[in-house]
Amino acid sequence: MSDLLERLRGRGWRMTSQRRVVAEVLDGDHVHLTADEVHARAAGRLPEISRATVYNTLGEMVALGEIIEVSTDGRAKRYDPNAHHAHQHLVCTSCGTIRDVHPTGDPLSDLPAAERFGFTVSAFEVTYRGLCPDCSA
Ligand SMILES: [Zn+2]
Ligand SMILES: [Zn+2]
Question: What domains can you pick out in the chain, each with its CATH number?
Fold first, then answer.
């Protein structure tokens, strides 16, 4: 569980009904929703919630570091509540489904010194691509 609501409450974030609905929509495992998807789901629970409110709320949660933005392959940016556990993404090239994965090994230390160009390297991102079981069936 991502326990996003608990985390936001713990940060002392003022929990309006609109903010709570956005947080509830994003809570869970392997959640990677576009802003439009968040808005559609939030509006299902709170019909008066505006797109602007959803966008602003997402921006605030990103600024707090409680959700992360995920961009893959030129598709719309997605929002991911799994912000505190380092993970990589497995993406279906057909339907766009995204799973959180935890590769073994350490790509950070595997980068040879000669390939670092003097950088102090602090992070990396890996995207695995392929067909999900539904799309390959
Ligand atoms: Zn698929
Ligand atoms: Zn993720």
Answer: 4-80 (1.10.10.10), 88-136 (3.30.1490.190)
Distance 17 CA to ligand 1 centre (A): 34
pLDDT in tens, 111-125: 999 999 999 999 888
Residue with tokens 């998807």: 37
CA distance 96 to 2: 21
**Looking at the whole model, is its pTM more than 0.90?**
no
Q: Which residues carry a binding-site annotation for Zn(2+)?
A: 92, 95, 132, 135
Neighbours of 127 (CB within 10 A): 14
How far is residue 26's CA from residue 10's CA, in Å, rounded to a whole number?
17
Decide: 25 and 41 in contact? Cβ < 8 Å: yes
